[in-house]
Design goal:
The protein is built from 13 helices and 3 strands; from the N terminus they run αααβααββαααααααα. It is mainly alpha-helical. The protein has a 3-stranded antiparallel beta sheet with strand order 1-3-2. It starts with a helix and ends in a 16-residue tail after the last helix.
Amino acid sequence: MSTLAHTMMTAARSADSGLAGPGELDRYPYAEAPVTERLGAPSWDGSDPELGRVGRRAAGSRGRGLHGQLVQQLGQMIVSGDLGADRPLVPEEIGQRFEVSRTVVRESLRVLEAKGLVSARPNVGTRVRPVSDWNLLDPDIIEWRAFGPQRDNQRRELSELRWTIEPLAARLAAGHGREDVQQRLSDMVEIMSHAMGQGDALTFSRADAEFHSLLIQVAGNRMLEHLSGIVSSALQVSGGPVTGCDRPTDASLGHHARIVDALAAGDGAAAEAAMRQLLIVHPEVERVVPAPREH
């Protein structure tokens, strides 16, 4: 096993156990205790019964500390529909209920506003915005939708988006024969192979996510590169076997290897074809993504 494969598998096992090796804390996000566990579950009763559900939701945040946790909690509630469109959000009330400062509330609402979830206007206050205004490509919103009532729609939409993005990216990447990229992609396939042999699904999924993200980044298209984070999010929150990337199999590994071989040969058509095969390994996808038209 290569040094890279050993390092990545060790890091994945450390993360799965809640431990972290040197330098790994900044590489992978770790869930923190939710606000309600650290501060005590607030009672959102009276005129705001929906807000009381926050204490019953699984939490974890991309951010650190109370600010990141509050963003996570409020974001989940908005995306799940617990806080409907045009619902007013009173900063003073939020601060009181969660026992956090006005600064924490203000910064959290700014983050949610940047994601299109809320709007703040003079003489109107802060209100929840309709779904049509949300930044549905934001990784946090993808995650919140994937684990909320819209999870089936989110999985379908992500699969359709990947079908559109990744075959094209594979074709374009074949024209960028950088040896360092070829080696890195080969390393990811090696890591996936070792992980599959050891039943290490966590390491497999992380190597898989890096493989697809790197492939998009080297396609030579800045707009596609901007979407690499979406593909990573799709792989992390798929919630079940939809494409060949969602569980370790010999077929999945074989398609990844064929993509690498096609890129090394500069064969864009073969790389695209291998990616399409990878994305329809499971029969479920055929109901989501129509087969290409025959000309």
